[in-house]
Each structure stands twice: as structure tokens, then as C-alpha cells.
Amino acid sequence: MKNIFIGFMFLIGIHSFAQEAGKVGELLKNEASKTEIESPNTKRSEARIKNNSGFRNQSQNNESGFKNSRYQWNVDYGYSEVFLRIPEQGIFSVELGDQFMANNSGKFRFFDLPSGRIPISIYENGYLLYRTTLNVRNNSRLVLDFFTNKGLYLLDSYPVQNQSYGFNNWNDVWNNPYGNQGNNWNNGGSYANVMDNSSFGDFLSMLQRNTRFDDDRLSVIRQQMRTTMFTSQQIQALVKEMSFDKNKLSLAKSIFNNCVDKHKYFIVCDAFDFESSKRELMDFVAKS
């Protein structure tokens, strides 16, 4: 019976779902008017020195033409990232806050962003297509898809710890929210995909339906751990599925290295019934 559960879980893990434009994520409203989009006056000139957004330090811009020798050595605006994909043919450019990027690869990765509301504009061949505002949290990565005939979709938000990444293939950043693992599932070895909330909900439901005992639950979860990373919130939910504290502790320790936000691992303690188990887990985390 245990082999059946593990086999069933493995088939779910390797199944590749077809992606469909606009079927995943939250649609962000286009704040650009129809007049702006159709007007030739909205064409962006890449030669302009001053950025188009009016964002961050614009009051300090030097309009005289002389170099500004006031170096900013230790300014800390926070750290966040935004990854945008445009899976279409064409020359697109993206302006995000005070950063600008243009290419025909369809992948736009922005780093060193401050937290807060950041304006984003998307252009094709220099002409404005879309403009909206992103709410960016510190130490987080927003992942988005843009389709010219559908709009801009926020796929998911992930924690960024020490600017490290839970994947081996850049395509997985955008593919994972769709439930895909790209073409990596049959490569063998270990690769770290952060399980998105929708996939985790399916996995947890399957675990609840098809396992009755802690040993079976542990086997299924540990099989999934071979290819998957989890958030501390997801790990808390998995640990709660165990019936006995000793099994909860065993799982919480073994899955620790699969956690993408270890700085929040303290919330896993809420899954335990006894204070002694909570202390033992925190001692384990402190020594890891």
C-alpha cells in the first residue's frame, strides 16, 4: 500500500501541466489610458538621461551637465527583486522605477529594488503598452507574466534570503506557478523548486485523502522532498498532519534544509503539542 501511495505522489510530481495565457495569477490593471497607448508621443527614447518614472532620487538629479561627486556609499533602500517574462516575439522594453531594460529574450530580471510602490511601464518597439504600480515588499521576489492581448499577471511572491535562489533553471521561476517543472523532471538528481501555494494545496489534499498513518505520511513527504523546496508556513501545515509529537519533530528536523525562509522557521513550533518538542526543534535550528 505504501508503494502505491509513493507511486501516486511521484506521478503527480512529474506531471507537466500545459500553460495557458491569463489562467494563472492576479491581473494587474493597466493604468495607461487608450489615448496614451495609441499616441505616438508616448514613444520612449532610450537616449534620455533622466528616467521616465520620477522614482527615487529624482530631486537630486544633476541638470547642469557636471558630474556629481557626492558618492552614496552606504545608502540602504532595502532589497527586493522583480522577474518579468514576456513569452512573445518582439523587441520589448521595461521601465521599473529608476531601472530600464530592453531585449528580445523576453526575460527581464530587476535587482536591488526598494520596498514600496514602484511604477512599471512596458513598451514594444518603444511605444507604451502597459503601465501600472507594483507593491513590492522588502526581501521578496515578485514573479510576473505579460501578454500583449491579456495583460500583466502577478504569478507569485517568494521570500529572498541572502539573495539565494531555490532553482537551477531560470525558466522555473515563471513555470513553477503553473505547476510545471519545465524539462527538468527527467534529468535525475536534485533540483530545488519552491512549491507554489496552489500546488501545495493539491499535495496536502492528496496526503490527507490517501494516508492514514504517520509512517505513510512521512514516506510521501520525504519522497516529495527530493525535488521540492517549501516555505516555513507550508512546513508547519505538513508537520500538523502528524499524529504524534515524536513524528512531528522527526519531520520538522528532516525537512529543515528544504525550507526557503529558515529565518521564519519558528512558526513551525505552533504545530507541536508539547513545549519540550518546541524547545528541541529550536535548539536543532540554532545548531544547524
UniProtKB/TrEMBL annotation:
Residues 33-63 are annotated as: Disordered. Residues 195-284 form the DUF4476 domain. The lineage of its organism: Bacteria, Pseudomonadati, Bacteroidota, Flavobacteriia, Flavobacteriales. This is Uncharacterized protein DUF4476. It comes from Chryseobacterium geocarposphaerae. Pfam families: DUF4476. Residues 33-49 have a biased composition (Basic and acidic residues). Residues 50-63 have a biased composition (Polar residues).
